[in-house]
Amino acid sequence: MGVADTITCIDCGGTCHRIPFEAPELGWQQGDVVTYRCGDCMDLWYLEVAEDDLDGNPLSPDVPGR
Ligand SMILES: [Zn+2]
After folding, report:
1. Are 15 and 37 in contact (CB under 8 A)?
2. H or E element: which one contains 52?
């Protein structure tokens, strides 16, 4: 699943879009801060990437085989 492209605005219930939309070249890492901007009230939200968000992380050391 990975890091969400959008979240729901805590203030107005609108849709907040991730900035930037593209994932980093090396993939997300735990502790990265992801920025979302609400399309309705333009508030900014900052979410830290949790371990649960890193499904399929290419940097994962325990990927079997090649
Ligand atoms: Zn909002």
Report:
1. no
2. none
Distance 16 CA to ligand 1 centre (A): 7
Quote the pLDDT of residue 45: 96
From ligand 1's centre to the CA of 8, what distance in Å?
Answer: 8
Q: Which two three-digit tokens encode residue 2?
A: 């990975």
CA of 6 to the centre of ligand 1 (A): 12
CA of 46 to the centre of ligand 1 (A): 13
Interval 26-34 mean pLDDT: 90
Say how far apart CA 26 and CA 52 lie, in whole Å.
17
Alpha carbons 57 and 66: distance in angstroms, whole number: 14
